[in-house]
Design a protein that fits this description.
4 strands; alpha+beta; four-stranded antiparallel beta sheet
């Protein structure tokens, strides 16, 4: 069955809404996985059991806390005392905040695994296009700048907590991010009274593998302040994570 322009447009609109939801969810997951969630305990560290277990005094109640993501030797095992001393040097006697991941009903690993799937989905569904073309690097089939910016923010956030053993995924993400930022830079208006502005869309593109002519966006040249805000946010985060001195873990 041959697709009509109306069918193609409907598919792109549905595709756009899906990717936008993915991007928002990815940023939300990065906040949960890398920042304090809603349930946060604040108290004074009054005891160190070993390198990964401490006791927190919260409102006159002592709470034993097992640190997530690390597993040090027990105190009686080789280097166990050194591990405990290292943790004590950092936090003993200090007031700290501890994220209670169990209260979320889901583990950090489950959240990270979900983020990995979302990142793969964004990468698999991004459109084709040479990096030197006007729309190369866009993360949406209609070459829109703001959805690309939000996806870039999500990918950059994910880089800060995805496992280091996800080597191929991280490399593909970094490539997409570099190309996406270059796309936003090329999109920027360079002259006239709107110098420095970011338009709604750039050039024309088509979904990867499609031989049909791309749809024309009559609002492509539209300029709004939120387009600029999203692009700048992505660029600033890019410099923090992958710019000079960045290591992808900030």
């Amino acid at each position: 069955m041959e697709r009509t322009p109306e069918m193609t447009k409907h598919r792109l609109l549905r595709y756009r809404r899906t990717l936008l939801s993915i991007s928002v969810l990815l940023i939300g997951i990065s906040v949960i996985a890398a920042s304090p969630p809603a349930a946060t305990l604040t108290g004074k560290v009054v005891s160190i059991a070993d390198g990964d277990t401490l006791t927190l005094l919260v409102d006159k109640t002592q709470i034993k806390v097992r640190l997530e993501g690390i597993d040090t030797p027990e105190r009686a095992q080789p280097f166990g005392r050194k591990a405990g001393q290292a943790l004590a040097n950092k936090v003993f006697g200090k007031v700290v905040q501890v994220d209670d991941l169990e209260s979320l009903g889901v583990s950090r690993q489950q959240l990270v695994d979900h983020a990995v799937r979302i990142c793969r989905s964004i990468l698999e569904e991004r459109p084709g296009g040479e990096g030197t073309s006007s729309y190369g690097g866009s993360l949406t089939p209609d070459s829109r700048t703001t959805p690309t910016s939000t996806r870039l923010e999500g990918l950059l956030a994910a880089l800060t907590f995805l496992p280091s053993d996800e080597v191929e995924l991280r490399q593909e993400m970094e490539t997409a991010i570099h190309e996406g930022i270059a796309f936003l830079v090329r999109a920027q208006v360079r002259s006239g009274e709107l110098d420095g502005a970011i338009p709604r869309a750039v050039g024309l593109s088509r979904p990867r593998g499609s031989r049909r002519l791309p749809l024309v966006d009559p609002r492509a040249s539209e300029v709004r302040i939120d387009y600029v805000q999203h692009a700048l946010s992505a660029m600033i985060r890019y410099l923090e994570v992958l710019g000079p001195g960045g290591d992808g873990k900030q």
